[in-house]
Amino acid sequence: MAQIDIVDEQVSLERPVLIEGFPGVGLVGKMAGDHLIDAFDMDHYANVFCESIPPVATYQKDNRELVTPVRLYVDAERELLVLQSDVPIGPEGATEFGNCVAGWFAETEILPVYISGLPRQTEETPALYGVSTDGTAGERLTEAGVDQPAEMGLISGPTGALLAHATEHDHTAVGLIVESNPQLPDPIASQVVIEQGIEPLADISVPTENLSTRAEEIEEARQQLIQRMQQANDDSSRAQPLRMYQ
């Protein structure tokens, strides 16, 4: 049964901004959401139960209590919510998940900000585009200085399902589309989303130095992999992990 189980009933919110952090291209939304939770030491606000969520339990560092793999975190002072997911939602479950949670988002007067990575082939600074479900959300993007898309495209997966549900039911929602590395986690793209999209939309300031450090580590690991591949022969060909950035 679909349910959002609030674990902290004492939190009071008026019109919060919600950041969606599902795994996707470049793990952009996931990294942005996780970074916000860590940077602001956000509190566990609710557990999310939907049929499309894989039946697994998550355990966390220095904590014995198991939690659901999809959760909401809150920073009441900043009027900020983050939807954190430890698991991907498959294409077959995207629509069910969208129907599962979107109604609650609308009932609580949340402005959802959905994030999607757009595979890019260049090494230039990632471009950020914004889309909206109505004029109200469009005005928020214009005020935030987020550009319109440069070409036609579509958004799939749970993020696309959530935006489709919002469009169908006339709910206000924003979509942020950022150019991202299609093969590796892309903290630079996450940094662009935070600084150029989330900060002005939520009227907050977010420290992003850690994301820059991660980008340097990932690039170093990528160069090491390229070097190993160039030096490899038939006898030494094998798969090797790239630490946590594989």
Question: Which key features would you list for this structure?
Answer:
alpha/beta; 8-stranded mixed beta sheet; 8 strands; 20% strand
Give the overall shape, derived from the CA principal axes. globular
**Could you give the count of β-strands?**
8
Discrete helix count: 6
CATH topology: Rossmann fold
Protein name: PAC2 family protein
Pfam families: PAC2
Organism: Halohasta litchfieldiae
Region (Disordered): 227-246
Structure characterization notes:
This protein has 246 residues and is of the alpha/beta class. It has a single domain, classed as PAC-like subunit (Rossmann fold). 37% of the residues lie in helices and 20% in strands. The protein is globular, with a radius of gyration of 18 Å. It holds the Pfam family PAC2. InterPro entries: Proteasome_assmbl_chaperone_2 (IPR019151), PSMG2_sf (IPR038389).
TL;DR?
It comes from Halohasta litchfieldiae. The protein has six helices and eight strands; from the N terminus they run ββαβββαββααβαα.
Topology:
Blueprint: E1 3-6, E2 17-21, H1 28-39, E3 43-49, E4 70-75, E5 80-85, H2 91-107, E6 111-119, E7 128-132, H3 135-144, H4 157-168, E8 174-180, H5 187-202, H6 209-231
Parallel strand pairs: 2-5, 2-6, 6-8
Antiparallel strand pairs: 1-3, 3-4, 4-5, 7-8
Helix pairs in contact: 1-5, 2-4, 3-5, 5-6
